[in-house]
Each structure stands twice: as C-alpha cells, then as structure tokens.
Amino acid sequence: MFEGKSIVVTGASGGIGVPLVRRLLLNGARVVAVDSNPNGEEILKDAIPNSAGLIYHRSKIEDEAACLSILGKETKVYGLAHLAGIFEPDNMKPGDVENIYDPVMEANIRNVYRLYSIIREAMLRENSARVVLVSSLAFQRGAPGHTAYSAAKGALVGMTRSLARKEAPKILVNAVAPGFIDTNMPQKIIAKRGIQNVIGEIPMMRLGTPDETAGVIQFLLGPDSSYVNGQVINVDGGIVCN
Q: What's the structural domain count of the chain?
C-alpha cells in the first residue's frame, strides 16, 4: 500500500502512534517517527520487532532547525500524521497563559504548522500526498477544565479545512477526532468521573482501542481515501451523535 513512500508521524511512541507506525511499516512505508520521549525509539522497537524502514527523531519540533533535521535527506514526503500533543488542565487563573495556554498551543498546533511549512515542498513533489491531523472530542463538546486544549484541537480543525481547500488536489488534508481511547491521555478524567460513568456516555459501551484509531488514520493516508478531503472523522463510539 505504501511501498516506496515516506510518512512522517509525530507523537510516534504514544498510545496511538505505536499501532499506527506498526501498520505503516507492515504496509511498506518508510516511517520518519518523531517524538520527544527519550525512550521513544526503544518503545517502538520493542513493540515492532521488524522495524526495518523506521527512522527515529527525538524532537519537540521546537524550531525550524528541528524540522529541517526531521526532513533530512527526504526529497519527497508522501504523508504527515500529526499525533503529538499534550493534555493539560487549566483553571483560568493568572499565570495560566504562560504556564499552560502557551505550552499547550505550542505542542498541539504551532509545532505542526511549523513542521508542515518545512516539509510542504517535499510533499508537493508526491502524487496526491496526505496530511492527517489528530483533533479531539474536546473540540466537539468542550472539555471542562481543559480550555486551552479544547481551543488547540479546534484550531487543528480550522487548519485542516483551510489547508484542504488550499492544497487540493496535490495534498489531501483530513483530521480524526478521537473520543475516549484506551491510552494514557484520558486516564485522569476516567479516574475522576469513574469508568462506568464514562462508558455510559458511549453508545458502544466501551473505550476505543488505539489500533481502531490508527486504522482510521491509515485509511486517510491510504489510496482508498482519494476523494476524501477537509473532513473530520469522529472516532468516539458514537458520543457526538448520542
């Protein structure tokens, strides 16, 4: 499916990143995996024994030099999947802008804007390249006590739709909006509200698996999504429609 194609994945060693990288490698991609976790490369290689085709960059994508390092010698980039982000609570108190809002915006939206601006030319050299951004249920409903995060994930949707109109047909841009997925990110909310209360809001009556979300991202990166552009696909077990 992805033979001979280079795909950049940010947040690659996270809960959804690992199964996505595994899927891409199994389908022939050359994966440029990016994560700030100092143990990220070890996590990926432990989870994916056959990791030929994997290139790992420890990076926060904090400046253009970091983005150029990620691009490296890649003259063509077929795909970008932006999974990196942080989920921090806020109290709307003095100091939140510098201590919470700015870091959340940096990790969730500014860094992918920065990275895309660097690798865009390499993507335009591909035939029908793909970008997939990861938004959140928090954009759809607003996460109480996570105002900055909700705003950042909404900004990703705006970026998705703007780029989709600008870059088509050379680059198709879509997003996924996961709900309660069984990763580390929602565990504090689940612990606070109680697992049964959380599941009670989900028509499918269970948490989503990381691999289910990775599968939707793989679809949006793959050839079967050739007429899908500017869309936000909810991967939430039906919460938004409930």
A: 1
